[in-house]
Amino acid sequence: MKKIIILFCISVLFVVNFSSCKKLIASVFGGTDVAVPAFQLTIPAIPIVPPGEISIGSYSFYFNLDSTVRANTAGAFGANSVNSIKVKQVIFSLTNADSSNNLANFVSARVTLQSNTNNIPVQVFDIDFPDSSSSGYTYIPTNSPELVSYLKGTTITYNIYGQMRRITTKPLELVVTVTVRAD
d(Cα 52, Cα 9) in Å, to the nearest integer? Predict the structure, then answer.
């Protein structure tokens, strides 16, 4: 009889603590870091320094959040288990930088994002680069916007903007690697 009462109490506690499936999923899922496929971009030589920000380009790609979550959780969870997606880290790398053409040539970079499920652009990040010669820069946001409503879409479009500090004398090959946190 004691075993039945103990099992009943444990069952009641379990049901009370996990009264909704979302709470149960959140307690088990715990979140995961997801590396978004790196994108490469050729920034043409810019022989003048415009007075303000310039558009570097607009790019679209196919994205399947459900497949990504399943791949990162060994198939245990899908897109419906994700309540939040925020940028955790952005790495900029110029593969052909030199002492005259590098990240110091840029004052800033900014990226906006929209998708077929949310077409209102959101600013993903706005970064100021230091004025020192460098081929790489790692940015860790302190207050990343919520991206889950955008990434539940299948067509993601991002727009890249930049402001020049100095001219560049050759095209620069930029690789951007983004890691997001899905909870």
Answer: 66
DSSP letter string, 51-78:
SS-EEEEEEEEE--HHHHHHHHTTTS--
Structure tokens, 3: 């075993």
Instruction: Give the residue ranges of DSSP H helices in the chain.
Output: 2-17, 21-29, 65-72, 148-151
Amino acid at 174: L
pLDDT of residue 25: 43
User: Which residues are CB-contacts of 5 (< 8 A; sequence separation ≥ 6)?
Assistant: none
Q: What is the pLDDT of residues 21-38, one digit of tens each?
A: 444 444 444 677 888 888
Contact 179, 37 (CB under 8 A): no
Q: Which are the contacts of 37, defined by CB distance < 8 A and separation ≥ 6?
A: 61
**All residues at 6 or more sequence positions from 117 whose CB lies less than 8 Å from its CB, including other chains:** 149, 150, 152, 153
Task: List the chain residues with pLDDT less than 50.
Answer: 1-29
- Point out which residues pair with 138 in neighbouring strands: 91
Distance of CA 167 to the CA centre of its chain: 29
Class of residue 109 by CB neighbours under 10 A (exposed 0-12, middle 13-18, buried 19+):
buried
**What mean pLDDT is reported for the chain?**
83
